[in-house]
Amino acid sequence: MEPQHLRIDRDDRTGVVVVTLDQPPVNALDERSYAELTHVFDSFGHDRTTRAVVLAAAGRVFCAGGDIRATERRLAGGGDAGPRHQLDPGLAPRACLTAIRTCPVPVVAAVGGAAVGAGLAMVSQCDVILASSAARFGMTEINVGVLGGYTHLQRLVGPYKARAMYFTGELVEAAEMYRFGAIAEVTSPDELAVRARDVAEAIAAKSPVAVRLAKEAILRSEHLPVDQAYPIEQEYTARLSRFDDSAEARAAFLEKREPVFRWQ
Q1: Are 116 and 219 in the same domain?
Q2: For residues 189 and 113, what is the distance between their CA atoms, to the nearest angstrom?
Q3: Residue in 109, 18, 99, 100 with CA at minimum distance from that of residue 63
Q4: How many CA atoms lie within 13 A of 231 on its CB side?
Q5: pLDDT tens figures, 114-152
């Protein structure tokens, strides 16, 4: 699928890929943009050269959520969604969010403006969230007669703040999201892109085997009780120790040199 609403920039030296949502004026998501995001993030599962991903957006708004006009067309029986999507209008958003969450390499969100509704849900699927001081976050669907997204929001801010945001449609500043632990770092608007790439490059410098196994272990264990989750992590540690890259990381540490990883 040739992207129309995304820009894909790959740094072959570092293995960092920047995926930029570019759908003026406010990066509202329609069936096409959901499908493009799903396709791109699914493709990283078949690509060993990608070591980390930055999810960014062009313009002053990160993502205004679902495209209301596209929703109106779909409800009226028009639009370009297929029959399956007509029966289940939530299918495309769910597939998109799943693709981002289960991406085999870490995804760093760089949020430079408002992320609302489906935009905030998309951000919540990322592994590390950076935001500029200009960013705002909200689940504003209730303002336009639809619902959805509490499931994702409460993972970021906890159930009771999430309920307040969900029922009122309020927008929350980046600094407050940081206080809730939802954001790893708040930057100035000018520094956001550089800092997001710095974080992605720091991840990409690690053993690609270790990073992918770590991501897989998190996905399998994060919602389980401790007595079930920790054995899964130990299982992945044992798997990793059988790779040559694991021995190389330890040898480089002891010899005080940079490791050379070979995906072995």
Answers
A1: no
A2: 9
A3: 109
A4: 4
A5: 999 999 999 999 999 999 999 999 999 888 888 878 999
Place of tokens 């980390």: 52
- 189 and 111, same structural domain? yes
Tokens of 43: 């493709």
Q: Average pLDDT by consecutive 10-residue portion of the chain (264 residues)?
A: 92 97 96 96 93 98 85 59 60 96 98 97 98 97 85 95 95 97 98 99 96 97 96 96 93 93 82
Q: What was the pLDDT predicted at 79?
A: 53
Helix (H) or strand (E) holding 263: none
Per-position DSSP letters for 171-188, written without gaps between them:
-EEHHHHHHTT--SEEE-
- For the chain, the maximum distance between any two Cα atoms, rounded to a whole number of angstroms, is 67
Q: Are residues 163 and 195 in the same domain?
A: yes
Residue 208, preceding peptide bond in cis (omega within 30° of 0): no
Q: Residue 104: beta bridge partners?
A: none
Same domain, 222 and 147: no
Give the per-residue pLDDT at 90: 83
Burial class (CB in 10 A: 0-12, 13-18, 19+), 176: middle
